[in-house]
Amino acid sequence: MSARVAVVGSSNLDLVVTASRLPRPGETVLGENFRTVPGGKGANQAVAAARAGAACDFVGAVGDDEFGTQMRASLAGAGVDVRGLRTVAGPSGIALIAVDRDAENFIVVAPGANGTLTELDADNRATIAAADVLLLQLEVPLAAVVRAADWARAEGTTVVLNAAPAAILPTELLDLVDVLVVNEHEAAVVAGVFSDDPSVLLDALLELVPRVVLTRGARGAAYADRRGLRLAVPAPRIDAVDTTAAGDAFTGALAVGWAERGGATTEDTVMASLRWACAAGAACAQRPGASTALPERSAIDALYDATYRGTP
Ligand code: RIB
After folding, report:
1. What does each of the 312 residues of the chain score in pLDDT, given as a tens digit?
2. Is the dihedral of CA 175, 179, 182, 184 positive or negative?
3. Which of 156, 178, 255, 290 has the fewest CB atoms within 10 Å distance of its CB?
4. 289 has binding-site annotation
5. How many CB atoms lie within 10 A of CB 143?
6. Hey, where are the domains in the chain?
């Protein structure tokens, strides 16, 4: 079954510098290469879902500048339906990104046009209603995130929230989430519990939402739900060059795998969705940049087969 995914979220133009190491506060380091890459967690997850095989609609906002034109073209070029992408007066969102030789990064976002997405309209509601999965992040105003989730719940669309960047979330939103996707830092902030033990974080988050996916980078992912299912998935072994957008690749592919398996209701289907998402995240980390690194379905399948084939 082909999946339909709707994304309500951000688009940024990423201004990316590579350097041998990341600067400490107050320090200047000489970098190496500079380039601009379409990014933003929302747009990345939309492109990730489209490349993974879904029909994907994007609802967001860009500015009336050259960056906005570039980001619209990038999304459309990836096959994402951009009829819900508004152009507003003012600058587009941008992200300053530095990447070091260990593939680690830091990112600072200036939201620009993303900050204008405070209201959604009837067309946006129809888009959400037509989707199997609604994908949300936290780079646009919370009012739009809550409204989108509320409509999705009313229309029977599964709500997947990637709580990035990390934030303390209101009950109003948590009550509408079907699947929460977080890394360990985001998990600690959302749960208000700081622990190195994934099971402690998962237990705390299950008090708030019914299903949790914990992404753990090179250590893979963990899953828990209120029915008592707990799974751990190792990540493919790869040489990472840039982890920017690896979480977006993971989340986009998870949404597609989840929808294609009819909501991933059994242990086998949840496991397969998680493994496929881990393969997507790892494939992304093998290439530089955000949207430029998001893998096609064939690349996800290849890494999935190479890593998990024959594993129970
Ligand atoms: O998740 C990676 C993304 O975070 C980058 O593309 C950047 O724009 C920020 O939103």
Report:
1. 589 999 999 999 999 999 999 999 999 999 999 999 999 999 999 999 999 999 999 999 999 999 999 999 999 999 999 999 999 999 999 999 999 998 889 999 999 999 999 999 999 999 999 999 999 999 999 999 999 999 999 999 999 999 999 999 999 999 999 999 999 999 999 999 999 999 999 999 999 999 999 999 999 999 999 999 999 999 999 999 999 999 999 999 999 999 999 887 899 999 999 999 999 999 999 999 888 999 999 999 999 999 998 887
2. positive
3. 156
4. yes
5. 12
6. 4-11+40-91+113-308
* CA–CA separation, 82 and 209 (whole Å): 30
Is 166 labeled as ligand-binding? no
> In the CATH hierarchy, which top-level class contains the domain 4-11+40-91+113-308?
alpha beta
Residues annotated as catalytic (active site), given as ranges = 248
Prediction pTM value: 0.96
Nearest to 235 by CA among 222, 226, 244: 222
Ligand 1, residues at Cβ distance < 6 Å: 10, 12, 14, 39-41, 44, 95, 107, 109, 139, 244-245, 247-248, 290
Take atom 10 of ligand 1 and give the residue whose Cα is closest. 40
